[in-house]
Amino acid sequence: MINVGFGPNIVLGVFIILAVLGLYFLRTIKYDLSRDIDIFFTTLGLIYSSIIIIHGWRLDPILLFGQILIIITILAIGWENIRLRGLLSKNNNQYTDK
Questions:
Q1: Domain ranges of the chain
Q2: How do residues 22-55 score in pLDDT, each as one tens digit?
Q3: C-alpha separations of 44 from 1, 13, 39, 50, 97 in Å
Q4: What's the predicted TM-score (pTM) here?
Q5: Mean predicted lDDT score pLDDT of the chain
Q6: Cα angle at 52 between 85 and 66, to 5 degrees?
Q7: Separation in Å, CA 16 to CA 6, 9, 33, 75, 93
Q8: Closest CA to 35 of 44, 46, 43, 26
């Protein structure tokens, strides 16, 4: 049975969709920051968000809170990873320009 009702699971799922699509479109904005593995993580994020949207109504409040904490942690780690990619790219360009 598919029961999609508006709740915190929809907000969480849409937030994840926006985050992983941002990772995917990083390829078009700054190609030197993107990696080939980003497509794999985007696919996993889209699958995960669709599961949260479709079956999130079954989550108890404590399970939903756990999912929110996991997603915040993963997004913070991903943000830091992209920042470090930028620093690495800038550092590599500095040495190749000489």
A1: 8-96
A2: 888 988 888 877 888 888 989 999 999 998 888 8
A3: 23, 13, 9, 10, 37
A4: 0.78
A5: 86
A6: 75
A7: 16, 11, 20, 9, 32
A8: 26
